[in-house]
UniProtKB/TrEMBL annotation:
InterPro entries given in the database record: Cyt_c_oxidase_assmbl_Pet191 (IPR018793)
Protein name: Cytochrome c oxidase assembly factor 5
Species of origin: Saitozyma podzolica
GO biological processes: mitochondrial respiratory chain complex IV assembly
Cellular component, GO, one term: mitochondrion
Pfam families: Pet191_N
Keyword Disulfide bond: yes
Keywords attached to this entry: Disulfide bond
Superkingdom to which the source organism belongs: Eukaryota
Similarity comment text for this entry: Belongs to the PET191 family.
Keyword hit for Cytoplasm: no
């Protein structure tokens, strides 16, 4: 049986949310924390965007015929890597001049 198209992005998002202070220190559920994304780390915010884009892609007829860009495993991995790199650049861990 094939995996649903957005399962990997969703699993990454859930794992990210479970590591946040909102869940650990405040004791809120991930669903409660996702309602105020400004308080979440940038990586989780990017994963929220990637997950919503993936879900929208399932409903968009043009993407259904052309293929959901996040339904390929390599594209999902690159989206997660891009989210991690963007979070590192904002945190100052990566020099943007070095490239990806």
């Amino acid at each position: 049986m094939a995996q649903p198209a957005c399962k990997t992005v969703r699993d990454d998002l859930v794992a990210c949310l479970l590591r946040t202070d909102c869940v650990i220190k405040s004791g809120k559920t991930p669903a409660e924390c996702i309602r105020s994304p400004q308080e979440l780390p940038l990586q989780c915010q990017h994963l929220i965007t990637a997950y919503s884009d993936c879900k929208k892609g399932l409903l968009d007829m043009r993407r259904r015929f052309r293929g959901n860009h996040l339904s390929n495993p390599s594209d999902r991995k690159s989206a997660a890597v891009d989210a991690k790199l963007a979070a590192q650049e904002v945190a100052g861990d990566v020099d943007p001049a070095q490239g990806r």
